[in-house]
Automatic annotation (TrEMBL):
SMART domains: Lactamase_B. This is Phosphoribosyl 1,2-cyclic phosphate phosphodiesterase. The lineage of its organism: Bacteria, Pseudomonadati, Pseudomonadota, Alphaproteobacteria, Sphingomonadales. It holds the Pfam family Lactamase_B_2. It comes from the Bacteria. It comes from Novosphingobium marinum. Its EC number is 3.1.4.55. InterPro entries: Metallo-B-lactamas, RibonucZ/Hydroxyglut_hydro.
Length: 259
């Protein structure tokens, strides 16, 4: 299996719009390309070339172009917040030439909210075909050669879905946008080869994990390697890399890692 980090930044990306010059790098070195972060999304890929996308960030088109990905076997959503779903229309070209819609999966409430906001994607409109056929995760166990497991994670007053994808004895897990570590999360991610984990900043945050919590989850679940993601402008790549244990890697856009 292979992990491809399409985007590793927080909801505003890095650099953030604003500041005195209109481009706010915060504590991040603008000369390090690994500090330029688009909104979070990943792809997991197996040896047969099957690819699963997790989340459709607002930067999806540029992310797929940058990584040369022109085919997806399915899309999974963690939740419906804008930075995780507003690039959904960028799936439209990937529908061309297919015999049917792209399969999509999410938790029940996320399915309901996505259908409400992007009806044309899931039902077609004005002669345009359905882009994605979305289903709940309730009965999903296998897809495109991957074993798929999930759990719900606290995300402030909302919830986000954590995923575990397995293939050929390897496992990649995804835990973004959580604010508390639960027993279900530790059990789901237990012993995984790669855990991609929410790490907004060093200080505590009401709806996201900070650096301490990210490392705590990685250690509690005994992940072989952890990849920090959803990083804000306070998290300089080089400085953060020097702070983390050897088994904890700082994610960056375009990062590829074999499980």
């Amino acid at each position: 299996m292979k992990l491809i980090v399409l985007g590793s930044g927080t909801s505003t990306g890095v650099p953030r719009l604003g500041g005195e010059t209109g481009i706010d790098w915060g504590a991040c070195d603008p000369d390090n390309p690994k500090n330029r972060r688009s909104r979070v999304s990943i792809v997991v890929e197996n040896d047969e070339g099957s690819r699963l996308l997790v989340d459709t960030s607002p930067d999806l088109r540029s992310q797929l172009l940058a990584t040369g990905i022109a085919k997806l076997d399915a899309v999974f959503w963690t939740h419906d917040h804008a930075d995780h779903c507003h690039g959904i229309d960028d799936l439209r070209p990937l529908r061309y030439g297919r015999g049917g819609p792209i399969p999509g999966f999410a938790a029940d409430e996320t399915v309901r909210r996505l259908r409400q906001r992007f009806g044309y994607v899931f039902a077609g409109q004005h002669g345009y075909p359905t882009i994605v056929s979305i289903e709940t995760l309730e009965n999903l166990r296998m897809f495109a050669g991957f074993s798929v497991q999930s759990c719900q994670m606290p995300h402030g007053p909302a919830q986000s879905t954590g995923f575990r994808f397995e293939c050929d004895g390897k496992s990649i897990c995804y835990a973004t946008d959580f604010s508390e570590i639960t027993r279900d999360m530790v059990d789901l991610f237990s012993g995984c080869d790669i855990l991609v984990v929410d790490c907004l900043r060093r200080e505590p945050h009401p709806t996201h994990a900070n650096l301490g919590m990210a490392i705590e989850l990685a250690d509690a679940s005994r992940a072989r390697r952890a990849v920090l993601t959803h990083l804000d402008k306070s998290m300089d790549y080089a400085i953060l890399s020097d702070e983390t244990p050897d088994h904890v890697l700082v994610g960056h856009d375009g990062m590829e890692l074999a499980a």
